[in-house]
């Protein structure tokens, strides 16, 4: 029996050995066993382990040769002959001849540059036209879908499936990338198919290179001199890195799946690690230079480096900056905020407060770096005397929270930008998704509205925290509590919550009004304001305005101006946006900054240029609408917690402790009423022009007689006899 096994082993090609660890490379040994999953739904019970399917070798495009597939079951060996293929397979491109030595290799430097960045499949720097394949099961599983971390829609078989998948009858599948320029390829990262319903992934593959897409050579195993076979994936989502035994300079690279999950298909998502190289003969058009001229620190910062950078900005601009902490994460990391204003540390009467929050999901790292870049930029430009920045920091108090979930970020940072996958580091250390962790104030408001209690009995603003949410055993993350207390301390007017993984701006409500609805248009009473704010960011973001850009995953938001109502996208109960709107005065949107949640460092300069103007312009929108101070007519003192109501908009705001307020409104004529306990309300007309505001709209309120009497009694004054007799008559009538 063992002699038979040894003889049959000569039929099997050499394959790599490894478990998908970062840095693993093809070693010319057998791959690990692969688990076959039967059934179509995720969560099915795995079947016993068996060896992965080994596609037969043979000629492409209608070969007549017989192919042998070997399956080992305990000690028995079963040989199955594949039927002859009598007709050419459709959509399968014949493989060009492969040589064992590079033919037509360019005369370029051979030394490897360490740490080659991604070529750009995930970030869309590589266009769809640069991707080809031997075959595809459908358009939705075409080569343009073979990008690392691409996400499918809820339905399989549509135009937006979650991988490239070769046809089942494609005996020699391949996936090809055209770099368009001489490139030093150094590594490959792969994933399986993203799907709610199917399991498909490649378990091993070979790699080939070409300069003309006709003549190819393979990546060779250094120790054995054979074509290297690289271990690939053992699940659909975990990214697996393989470094090439020797970096190769070429224009084209091909991945040739050798084995895949039994019962599945050859499906993969990938990113190619590659360094650009010089072209001494100037044979190819030069790649466009991407970057920024701003003298900023373009790199990823872990917790220690972030804290150091914020300290450096504070030391460079001590007169306009202040670093403070709003609390700690579950693991004790401080939630640092950079405040930037001409009077840091104090609320100035009439000066609005705005904030940016990033890193709510720890693996969505771009927002964190953009805020660190923004604070450097504002400091640098203020010292240069830039008039726009000077006005912004003189008239506005800006707060930047770069990392709301530092525990999650540290997890993602340790994995690295290309290997962190789609979800690792998203949650805090307790496993809580912070964007679902705020109190649900939507439901009690909508129930009160349905009962006709709003606004007379139940207010349409500043809804209190539910009792269950304040209990000691409530599932509320320390990061969430810290942000809520921060919101309650500072009278924020405007905010944006920076996320990643898409290119779109979403606005409240984030939760659908119909219970259990997965998605439903659910606008707020301030829908026109939120649409304006969202359009301002989307309209000044370079990437969102790129006319030829393709969708990130499964929805083309460019058809609707790159903005969407959050609930109409997908429902998010307990979101920070909805909570901010219903519990405070602050209007907050969510900005999805990039298809790539954790872009490589070399992409940060371009991402900064994509978002710089949008970040500045959005902050300036705090001037849109009306502002003023509500004062006591007799004392001229500001009245705190006065209610500002706009006719026709069922959502009010309140004044800060000094009596000042800001009410964001789109251009138009408004009837505004200011009211406060113990005062007669006052109403006036306020016009918001299209020119940059804000428009002053001040109020003086007069105390009611009842309030005057309360104040007299509180001061120990005696009640006049005539007033005492009048009060006695009123009490008698009441009795």
Automatic annotation (TrEMBL):
<keyword id="KW-0121">Carboxypeptidase</keyword>
<dbReference type="InterPro" id="IPR000421">
    <property type="entry name" value="FA58C"/>
</dbReference>
<comment type="similarity">
    <text>Belongs to the peptidase M14 family.</text>
</comment>
<keyword id="KW-0732">Signal</keyword>
<comment type="function">
    <text>May be involved in cell-cell interactions. No carboxypeptidase activity was found yet.</text>
</comment>
<keyword id="KW-0964">Secreted</keyword>
<feature type="signal peptide">
    <location>
        <begin position="1"/>
        <end position="20"/>
    </location>
</feature>
<dbReference type="Pfam" id="PF00754">
    <property type="entry name" value="F5_F8_type_C"/>
</dbReference>
<feature type="active site" description="Proton donor/acceptor">
    <location>
        <position position="592"/>
    </location>
</feature>
<keyword id="KW-0482">Metalloprotease</keyword>
<keyword id="KW-0645">Protease</keyword>
<dbReference type="GO" id="GO:0006508">
    <property type="term" value="P:proteolysis"/>
</dbReference>
<dbReference type="GO" id="GO:0008270">
    <property type="term" value="F:zinc ion binding"/>
</dbReference>
<dbReference type="InterPro" id="IPR008979">
    <property type="entry name" value="Galactose-bd-like_sf"/>
</dbReference>
<dbReference type="Pfam" id="PF00246">
    <property type="entry name" value="Peptidase_M14"/>
</dbReference>
<keyword id="KW-0479">Metal-binding</keyword>
<feature type="domain" description="Peptidase M14">
    <location>
        <begin position="299"/>
        <end position="622"/>
    </location>
</feature>
<keyword id="KW-1015">Disulfide bond</keyword>
<dbReference type="InterPro" id="IPR000834">
    <property type="entry name" value="Peptidase_M14"/>
</dbReference>
<dbReference type="InterPro" id="IPR057246">
    <property type="entry name" value="CARBOXYPEPT_ZN_1"/>
</dbReference>
<feature type="region of interest" description="Disordered">
    <location>
        <begin position="30"/>
        <end position="66"/>
    </location>
</feature>
<keyword id="KW-0862">Zinc</keyword>
<feature type="region of interest" description="Disordered">
    <location>
        <begin position="83"/>
        <end position="103"/>
    </location>
</feature>
<dbReference type="InterPro" id="IPR050753">
    <property type="entry name" value="Peptidase_M14_domain"/>
</dbReference>
<dbReference type="InterPro" id="IPR008969">
    <property type="entry name" value="CarboxyPept-like_regulatory"/>
</dbReference>
<dbReference type="GO" id="GO:0004181">
    <property type="term" value="F:metallocarboxypeptidase activity"/>
</dbReference>
<dbReference type="Pfam" id="PF13620">
    <property type="entry name" value="CarboxypepD_reg"/>
</dbReference>
<dbReference type="GO" id="GO:0005615">
    <property type="term" value="C:extracellular space"/>
</dbReference>
<feature type="compositionally biased region" description="Low complexity">
    <location>
        <begin position="88"/>
        <end position="103"/>
    </location>
</feature>
<keyword id="KW-0325">Glycoprotein</keyword>
<keyword id="KW-0378">Hydrolase</keyword>
<protein>
    <recommendedName>
        <fullName>Probable carboxypeptidase X1</fullName>
    </recommendedName>
</protein>
<dbReference type="InterPro" id="IPR057247">
    <property type="entry name" value="CARBOXYPEPT_ZN_2"/>
</dbReference>
<feature type="domain" description="F5/8 type C">
    <location>
        <begin position="114"/>
        <end position="275"/>
    </location>
</feature>
């Amino acid at each position: 029996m063992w002699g038979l096994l040894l003889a049959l082993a000569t039929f099997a090609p050499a394959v790599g050995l490894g478990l998908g660890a970062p840095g693993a490379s093809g070693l010319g040994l057998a791959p690990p066993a692969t688990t076959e999953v039967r059934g179509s739904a995720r969560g099915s019970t795995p079947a016993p382990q068996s060896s992965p399917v080994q596609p037969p070798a043979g000629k492409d495009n209608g070969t007549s040769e017989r192919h042998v597939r070997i399956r080992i079951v305990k000690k028995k060996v079963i040989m199955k002959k594949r039927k002859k293929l009598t007709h050419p397979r459709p959509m399968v491109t014949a493989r060009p001849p492969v040589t064992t030595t590079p033919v037509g290799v360019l005369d370029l430097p051979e030394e490897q540059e360490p740490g080659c960045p991604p070529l750009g499949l995930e970030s869309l720097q590589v266009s769809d036209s640069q991707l080809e394949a031997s075959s595809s099961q459908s358009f939705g599983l075409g080569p343009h879908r073979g990008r690392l971390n691409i996400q499918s829609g809820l339905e399989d078989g549509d135009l937006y499936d979650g991988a490239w998948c070769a046809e089942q009858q494609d005996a020699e599948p391949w996936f090809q990338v055209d770099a368009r320029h001489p490139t030093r390829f150094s590594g490959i990262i792969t994933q399986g198919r993203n799907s709610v319903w199917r399991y498909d992934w490649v378990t091993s593959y070979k790699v080939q290179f070409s300069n003309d897409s006709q003549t190819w050579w393979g990546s060779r195993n250094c120790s054995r001199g054979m074509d290297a076979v690289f271990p690939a994936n053992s699940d659909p989502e975990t990214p697996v890195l393989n470094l090439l035994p020797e970096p190769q300079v070429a224009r084209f690279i091909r991945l040739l799946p050798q084995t895949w999950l039994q019962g599945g298909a050859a499906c993969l998502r990938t990113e190619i690690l590659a360094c650009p190289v010089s072209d001494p003969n100037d044979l190819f058009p030069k790649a466009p230079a991407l970057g920024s001229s701003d003298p900023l620190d373009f790199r990823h910062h872990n917790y220690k480096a972030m804290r150091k950078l914020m300290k450096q900005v504070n030391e460079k601009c001590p007169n306009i900056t202040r670093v403070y902490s709003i609390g700690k994460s579950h693991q004790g990391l401080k939630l640092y905020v950079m405040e930037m204003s001409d009077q840091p540390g104090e609320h100035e009467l009439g000066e609005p407060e705005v904030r940016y929050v990033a890193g709510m999901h720890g693996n969505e790292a771009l927002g964190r770096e953009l805020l660190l870049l923004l604070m450097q930029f504002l400091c640098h430009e203020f010292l240069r005397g830039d008039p726009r920045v000077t006005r912004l920091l003189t008239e506005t108090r800006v707060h930047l929270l770069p990392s709301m979930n530092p525990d999650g970020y540290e997890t993602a940072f340790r994995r690295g930008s290309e290997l962190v996958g789609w979800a690792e580091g998203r949650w805090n250390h307790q496993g809580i998704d912070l964007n679902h962790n705020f109190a649900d104030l939507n439901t009690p408001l909508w129930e009160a509205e349905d009962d006709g209690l709003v606004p007379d009995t139940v207010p349409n603003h500043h809804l209190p925290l539910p009792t269950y949410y304040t209990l000691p055993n409530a599932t509320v993350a320390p990061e969430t509590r810290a942000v809520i207390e921060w919101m309650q301390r500072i009278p924020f007017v405007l905010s944006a919550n920076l996320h990643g993984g898409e290119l779109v701006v979403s606005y409240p409500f984030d939760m659908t009004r119909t219970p259990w609805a997965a998605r439903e248009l659910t606008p707020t009473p301030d829908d026109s304001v939120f649409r304006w704010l969202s359009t301002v960011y989307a309209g000044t973001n370079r990437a969102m305005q790129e006319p030829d850009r393709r969708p990130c995953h499964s929805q083309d938001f460019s058809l609707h101006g790159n903005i969407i109502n959050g609930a109409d996208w997908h429902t998010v109960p307990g979101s920070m946006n909805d909570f901010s709107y219903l519990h405070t005065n602050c209007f907050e949107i969510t900005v999805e900054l990039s298809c790539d949640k954790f872009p490589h460092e070399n992409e940060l300069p371009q991402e900064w240029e994509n978002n710089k103007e949008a970040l500045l312009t959005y902050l300036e929108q705090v001037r849109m609408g009306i502002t003023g101070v509500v004062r006591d007519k007799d004392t001229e003192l500001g009245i705190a917690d006065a209610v500002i109501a706009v006719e026709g908009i069922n959502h009010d705001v309140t004044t800060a402790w000094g009596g000042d307020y800001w009410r964001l409104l789109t251009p138009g004529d408004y009837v505004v009423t200011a009211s406060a306990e113990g005062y007669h309300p006052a109403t006036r007309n306020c016009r918001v022009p299209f020119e940059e505001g804000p428009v002053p709209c001040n109020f003086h309120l007069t105390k009611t007689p009842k309030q005057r009497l309360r104040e007299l009694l509180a001061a120990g004054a005696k009640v006049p006899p005539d007033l005492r007799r009048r009060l006695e008559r009123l009490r008698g009538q009441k009795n």
